[in-house]
Amino acid sequence: MRNIILALAASTAIAFPAMAEDVRIAVGSFNLNNLPFPVAQGLGLYEKHGLEVQVDNFASGGSKTLQALVAGSTDIAVGFYDHTIQMQAQNKDVVAFVQLARNSGLVLAGRPDSTFDPAKPETIKGAKIGITAPGSSSDFFVRYYLERHGLSDDDVSLIGVGSGGTAVAALQEGKIDLLVNYDPAATIITERGIGKILIDGRSDAGAASIYGGVYPTSVLYATQGFIDKNPETVQKVADATVEALKWMHEHSPEEIVDVLPKDFVTGDRETYIKAVSNAMPIFSADGIIDPEAIKTPLAVLSTFNDKVAKADIDLSATYTDRFVEKSAEAAQ
């Protein structure tokens, strides 16, 4: 009997970790750049590491997530690395501590009859281009492409169309000529014959054609103040997320989709699996932030953001690898 009681106690402790820490994590959208976060959720890794996670989903995008973090209504955000640079230019310390997506993941798509030819950049003139929102990474994608080819945003019309299904519908219905967006939208467009991919930033070569190099995107970030006050909590979040990244690279797209929370999967399952397969090259395997790669977002932002261009940005203050490095040591 005593052994049975001890076994029951042990199983209860595993199912309901004692003294689970509450942490609020905000996520800006369901684009696949953020995929490692819901994978960690679906695998129960945050609970495994002693966390009780309250998730706030801001479907309108990363800017709302960033606002929530700076305002203190969330503890940690799943957002894009370039936000940390923008915040430093405003004298706010926001620090990335796990990298989820090591590359852009953005594509530029057009309808089947599109007349834009990336080999002839001037053919983009007059196009109505859908982006997720003004000031977003998709906005910078277009503007930097134009800048590098001697064109300007006056040569096109930039229209906010969101992401996912609404973005696909805007292209399909002819409200826009071109669309810059992420998976699963990118895969849905090709699988359903709605359009074709003209520039593919999911690959290193595609990113280089736009930015001149890979463009780190999705990260976990927090204010420096929160990190300083709650290093153990941040470490647990890092441990769970790094474990999810490793798991993703050891499993098939089908297995990845199987563990996702239902509300994360958009469209039919088979198309979504293909989208995950197409996006896999962008995901970090270890969560490490490369100090060389983050120079690309700084170059892009300095072109379009006056505050960033005028500021003396210290990239070393925008990220830390100490938590993921400790995660790696603990896993050995």
Automatic annotation (TrEMBL):
Its main location: periplasm. GO terms for cellular component: periplasmic space. It is found in: Periplasm. It comes from the Bacteria. GO terms for biological process: alkanesulfonate transmembrane transport. Keywords: Signal. The keyword Signal applies. Residues 1-20 form the signal peptide. Belongs to the bacterial solute-binding protein SsuA/TauA family. This is NitT/TauT family transport system substrate-binding protein. It comes from Paracoccus aminovorans. The lineage of its organism: Bacteria, Pseudomonadati, Pseudomonadota, Alphaproteobacteria, Rhodobacterales.
